[in-house]
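EI: anyone free to look at a 188-residue chain?
SC: sure, send it
EI:
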Amino acid sequence: MKQIRQYFEKTVNLTDKDWQFFSSKLIRQEFPKNHLLLKTGQTENYLSFIETGMIRFYIPKDENDLTFAFAFDNNFVSGYDSFLTKTQSTYNIETLTKSILWRLTYNDLQDIYNQTEIGNIIGRQASEELFLKKSKREISLLKDTAEQRYRNLFIEQPHLLQHIPLKYIASYIGVTPQALSRIRNRIY
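SC: here you go
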């Protein structure tokens, strides 16, 4: 929980009163590797902060799932579109490693917005982070080559890539596992 306060205090000054109220709403949950946090057709009920873990977002397909995002330690994770609209998700969210999440329900988040001085700032920061990641991904798909998307992922999270199966990385950068092998051979 300390990580969450440190995350917010990079940009806002949390009073002890606000932090106490905010932290009282957090639910700590541990999940095993390969656990589905959200399944297609379910409604997202949580905005979560990753204390530890790696998480994958994907669209399930008969042959090869389409991985479109990863989330790592000290970041927010949510099927945010489903969370905000209370509609069914069109994708799955799965833990790739044992993960510890601190979670807020939609109603608890609304209470934080309404009853703390900094609640709206916290909510804005979380939603801005999720939006910026989504925008960065979309722009990368439009302008970068698959090799550049691989390099960017490697630069951003080099120690974590060792733990993500290559088939997920290939799907994420938009190539087959064989094409990813060729990219990796060119780089190394």
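EI: The mean pLDDT is 91.
SC: 👍
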